Amino acid sequence: MPHRRKPFTLGLIQMRCAPDAATNLNRACELLREAAHRGATVACLPELFLGHYFCQTEDHAFFSLAEPIPGPSCEALADVARETRMTVVGSLFERRAAGVYHNTAVVFDSDGRQVGIYRKMHIPDDPLYYEKFYFTPGDLGFQSFETKQCNVGTLVCWDQWYPEAARLTALKGADVLFYPTAIGWHPAEKAEFGPDQYDAWQTMQRAHAISNGIYVAAVNRWGHEGPSGGGIEFWGGSFVADPFGRIIARAPHDRDDVLVVPCDPALMETTRQHWPFLRDRRIDAYGQITERYIGRA
CA-CA distances (angstroms) from residue 235 to 16, 28, 218, 255, 264? Predict the structure, then answer.
């Protein structure tokens, strides 16, 4: 008989972020403890949860928000992981060296040990998302981290639109793919484009779950940040999709929430047996995927 992997329970921490780091860190630890109390064994916080989403403007002063990894915030998250016996994923603004900064997800095992980091690979440069000004693209590749609870894969926000990233993380053996996220509507565009944008966001990540036979958990912030009439209205709506692509839990748009979602690796096994996409991949035919563009210029 093959070894049966044990079930695990996800905790998605959806929160509104205050301007100051101390308030956010205290609130995050409070919500992580709530998740553990309700049975979560592996939990994830939103992208850059320690403050307002500062990438809405290009301002050198914001580089002062970055911190080393490991550093003070890592110590606080490691303490909560150890206290609750829960695996924790936190998203931080990493100062790697003078002039080299990353958007980084840190994974702590249930004994508080830092088991690895993932540096965001895809860096956007869109209106109010001026991340290329702040972040160096990741150089650690796509990874899965073995923890006492399950194999944790994590990408970050803009990574969620890229099937190659999800595929490579799944091929590394991840049981769950976390996307700590900061995504929302531009208020002036919400009425015309908002429903379709939100639907596309969910559809893309559900597709990752289906094509890889994996659990996918998108963890967003919520609330308006920025000037009145402008800025970004972060839409919350954190959710979990199972390996069949079904949304099995979803948070509201307008409040803090802790989603606690039981997951069973046996469903991954069954789904991949009936939809054997990994088996039928033509790995001999995909060499051109590394080209920027294949058609005529």
Answer: 10, 18, 12, 10, 28
Residue ranges making up the domain that contains 135: 8-290
CATH of the domain at 20: 3.60.110.10
Q: Distance (Å, rounded) from C-alpha 62 to C-alpha 115?
A: 28
| Residues belonging to the active site | 47, 120, 157
**Is the entire prediction scored with pTM above 0.85?**
yes
pLDDT digits (tens, 9 = 90+) for 18-71: 999 999 999 999 999 999 999 999 999 999 999 999 999 999 999 999 999 999
Angle at 77 between CA 75 and CA 78, to 5 degrees: 60
Distance between CA atoms of residues 217 and 232, nearest Å: 22
Q: How many other C-beta atoms are found inside a 10 Å radius of the C-beta of residue 1? A: 3
Residue 110: phi and psi, rounded to 5, are: -70, -5
